[in-house]
Amino acid sequence: MSSTPPEYPGELIERVRAAAAARTSLHITGGGTKAFHGEAAAGEPLSTTGWSGIVSYEPTELVVTVRAGTPLAELEAVLAERGQCLPFEPPHFAPGGTVGGMVASGLSGPARASVGSVRDYVLGARFINGRAELLTFGGQVMKNVAGYDVSRVMAGSMGTLGVITEVSLKVLPVAPAEATLVFALGQHEALEQLHRWGGQPLPLNASRWVKDDAQDGAPERLFVRLRGAVAAVEAACERMAREAGGTRMDNAVTAPDWAACRDQRLPFFHAPSPEVCLWRLSVPQTAPVLALPGAQLIEWQGAQRWLWAPALAAAEIRAASAAVKGHATLFRAGADGAPGVPRFDRASNAIETITQRLRAEFDPAGIFNPGRT
């Protein structure tokens, strides 16, 4: 825990005030570990890394309040000391990621489909708007909002609404038991089995299907992680292994693998060639197998599908996603940067209208991260 700093992050406020007066764009940065995500932002760098530290932590209340520049790894270490965690498993991608970047990117890890997203755990936030005002929304309990919940809107806003200075987060105890099962199943069979298990009272926490082209025979495997009470996990292991022929794996082996999946360090996430891009498809869990070119890895019980394909396949990929009521994001561009290909699908007219109104209210001069989304 750090010593108590001044009440207001004065330096950040002054930078924003000067930029607003001069109509100068600001590129809000933290650890830079997610700079690849989304369109490139313009403007002078405004770093939040100097505004760090845990403001308060009440383990018995399952609430922590932390400044935006605090390293994510530091927060997770403090929580781990008390047997608690951020259950949505925020990706790190590289050392140095910050809590502010975690919220602004809105990205979650393997357990997202079972436990919720970053947004679901944001209880309150403080941020500097485009008028250089320090605003506070929400609080430190779940039922603390009357009207529009602005604190949760900051999750996934990509720094376009303001400079996050502080967030209050709900945390949870680490599950008392965990197990990972592996099944030899093709993609169609794996999705059907996941849908079947999803309708049963099983402690499903995460899943990952992948075809391993690096091994002889290119085996197709489904990994399923269970978390919960000891009795529930043990019973589920026996039942699922019996139903689908699964094998239980050693947690000492699987824990690093799940972390590698979260941070995209698995062999699948190594680009098969310089020109291909990594696409992220967000679709309903019940979506069928999508006949698309390139290798796929499927998470979130079918709802998140990673695909290696060239930028030229953008129209085909986005059409396939839209056909099942999903959308596609160009998550990591190939070596040429994929010029002319939007990173995100076009939002609906309703969403675009709400987004523009929010930006006009909180950043009327448009100084924060212009072009980021």
> Overall 3D geometry?
globular
Mean pLDDT: 92
Order of helices and strands: HEEEEHEHHEEHEEEHEEHEHEEEHEH
The proportion of residues forming helix, as a percent range, comes to 25-40%
Strand adjacency order, main sheet: 13-10-12-11-15-16-14-17
Structural class category: alpha+beta
Q: How is the biggest beta sheet arranged?
A: 8 strands, antiparallel
Terminal-residue CA separation: 34 Å
Number of distinct helices: 10
* CATH C-level class of the domain at 10-174: Alpha Beta
Radius of gyration, taken over Cα atoms and rounded to an integer in Å: 21 Å
Seen as an oligomer or otherwise, the chain set is: single chain
Number of β-strand runs:
17
Any low-confidence stretches, pLDDT <50, length ≥5?
Answer: 1-6
Describe this structure in words.
The structure is a single chain. With about 375 residues, the protein is of the alpha+beta class. Among the domains are: about 10-175, 2-Layer Sandwich (Uridine Diphospho-n-acetylenolpyruvylglucosamine Reductase, domain 3); about 175-265, Alpha-Beta Plaits, CATH 3.30.70.2190. Helices cover about 25% and strands about 25% of the residues. It contains 10 helices and 17 strands. It has helices spanning about 10-20, 70-80, 100-105, 110-115, 150-155, 185-200, 230-245, 250-260, 315-325, 350-360; strands spanning about 25-30, 45, 55-60, 65, 85, 120-130, 135-140, 165-170, 170-175, 175-185, 205-210, 220-230, 245-250, 275-280, 295-300, 305-310, 325-330. The strands form 4 sheets. It has an 8-stranded antiparallel beta sheet with strand order 13-10-12-11-15-16-14-17. A 5-stranded antiparallel beta sheet has the order 3-4-8-6-7. A hairpin with a 4-residue loop joins strand 15 and strand 16 (about 305-310). It starts with 9 loop residues before the first helix and ends in an 11-residue tail after the last helix.
